[in-house]
Design a protein that fits this description.
The chain contains two helices and four strands; from the N terminus they run βαβββα. The chain is of the alpha+beta class. The chain has a four-stranded mixed β-sheet, with helices on one face. The chain is globular, with a radius of gyration of 13 Å. The N and C termini lie far apart (28 Å).
Length: 107
């Protein structure tokens, strides 16, 4: 098996309600993760990208976070509806989805 071109990390951090840093899990991160896995399967993109759940990636208070390596692109506020666009534009086309990129994020 060859090494995938991209590695996608989806934050599934689950903090208690009212935690000051927020919780991606409470904002639907498991549904986003499932959508990435479904899209990967639909496109048979196993050689193109790996999809993994992760702990905190930082700004959990601002919605579901998705990190794409090797470019270290951090997407913020990702929903299930955004997953196909991320696949088409970034993972297949090499062009990150600008409207979802977390401004000021340094990785």
């Amino acid at each position: 098996m060859s090494r995938p071109e991209y590695h996608v990390f989806v934050c599934t951090q689950n903090r208690p309600p009212q935690h000051p840093r927020g919780s991606c899990a409470s904002k639907g991160s498991m549904a986003v993760l499932q959508a990435f896995w479904a899209e990967q399967q639909k496109r048979q993109a196993y050689e193109k990208c790996a999809v993994t759940y992760s702990g905190c990636l930082g700004p959990c208070d601002q919605g579901v976070n998705v990190l794409v390596y090797p470019e270290s692109v951090l997407y913020r506020g990702v929903t299930e509806a955004d997953v196909a666009e991320i696949f088409t534009s970034h993972l297949e086309g090499g062009v990150p989805v600008a409207r979802l990129i977390a401004s000021g994020a340094v990785w």
